[in-house]
Structures are given as C-alpha cells and as structure tokens.
Amino acid sequence: MLELHVVNHPLVSHKLTQMRRAETPSERFRQLLAETSLLLAYEVTRELPLKSVRITTPMTDTDQPELIEEPVVVSILRAGNGLLDGVLRVIPSARVGHVGLYRDHETLEAIEYYCKLPPLEGRTVIVVDPMLATGNSASAALDRIKLDEPAAIRFLCLLAAPEGIAALQEAHPDVAIWTAAVDECLNEVGYIVPGLGDAGDRIFGTS
Ligand code: URA
Fold first, then answer.
1. Which of 33, 111, 196, 201 is at a distance of 20 to 30 A from 158, taking alpha carbons?
2. Which residue's CA lies nearest to atom 3 of ligand 1?
C-alpha cells in the first residue's frame, strides 16, 4: 500500500519556491534546504514509537514518554547531505550512514561507489535524498540498506516525480515516503519538471 506524505506547510512551500528559482545562489539554496529539512524532519519523525519511563522532576516522580530509540539516518550521496543538517538538528545523536550512488547518464541506472553504514538491524532508518526522480538511486540504496535488516524504513525527499513514487512503490512497497511536493513529470533525461535542477549542483555550486 502506498504511504505518501506530502508535507503541506506554508513555510515549506515558500522555501521550496525560493529553492526552485534559477537565480537563487548556492549559499542561499543551502540555507533554505537546511531550514526546510528541519521542518521535514519534524514530520518524518512523527509517530516514532515511544516508551514510558519513570523520571523525577523537581516536583515529583512521574511516568513520561521517551523515544524507544533514535532512528538511524542514511544519506544518499551527494545531495542527501543537503538534507542531513536539518535532520540532525532535530535528532542530534542519531547515527549516520552514507550510500554513494551515481546515475549512469545513458541508462539512468544507479551505480554504487561507496557504502558505510552503522548497525541497522532492528532499527528505524530514515533515508534522505532531496530528489526522487526515476527512483533508481533510491531503490538501489534501499536494496543495500535492507541487507542489514532494519525494522522499518522511511524515505525523505524534497521533491518527488510521479514516476519515482511509482517506481519506489513497486520495488519497496513497505517504505513510506515523505516529500515537500510532487511535481509534474520527468523530462527525457530524467530531471524533475518543473523541479529545481540538479540538487547536488545547486547545493555545492558545481554546475
Ligand atoms: N536529480 C536531481 O538533482 N534533479 C532532478 O531533477 C532529478 C534528479
């Protein structure tokens, strides 16, 4: 079953529009992405399981909720790192993994060139990548992450194309998706339209 959460918040929409503008420079783009990822992180961590713990306040002993354990965050290189800052500000002690994938420009297939993950077995994993385009990179990263047997996976992006959502749903129906917006389509070279261009280039100023 498709679990798609479109984060419908005026601040997220406003910041996304500024990021989409071709004239927005990298410095401002990075800042906007960090701010937006903080808001998205707030949503993607909704409904994380809690346990009751006995604590002592200055007034009395009381049972209060606490996270059972913090999720692990996995960034899909390189653009995923643009979302990482905001997510780590919300869950500062989360352990972080990286999966490096590049897109073969002819086949649009994802090729893995780097993988370093903390222990994932039984954990909730939040996978971050700003652009869910063809879904190839996301799918390949999820294939790799699932080898380590996490309990649950949430996929967090900034923009999703309908094609990427469908591909991810087909390959990984158990993975819920959070995004700030669903755009119209992919163009002939696999970029999201209207989109914001190449997220990695926009973040790192490499275009
Ligand atoms: N990756 C990007 O950075 N942008 C797109 O539009 C699609 C994939």
1. 111
2. 198
Question: Which tokens belong to 111?
Answer: 């090729």
> Which residues does ligand 1 sit against, CB inside 6 Å?
79, 131, 133, 191-192, 195, 198-200
Please give the domain boundaries of the chain with CATH numbers for all domains.
4-204 (3.40.50.2020)
Residue 56 is classified by DSSP as: E
- Helices H, strands E: what count in the chain? 6, 14
The residues near 137 (Cβ < 8 Å, ≥ 6 apart) are 76, 101, 103, 110, 129
Ligand 1 midpoint to CA 118 (Å): 27
Q: How far is the CA of 79 from the centre of ligand 1 (A)?
A: 9
Q: So which residues are the catalytic ones?
A: 103, 107, 198, 201
Note the pLDDT tens digit of each residue in 162-190: 999 999 999 999 999 999 999 999 999 99
Cα–Cα distance for residue pair 207/205, rounded to 1 Å: 6
| Residue 76 to residue 155: CA distance in whole angstroms | 11
Residue 105 pLDDT exceeds 80: no
Its pTM stands at: 0.94
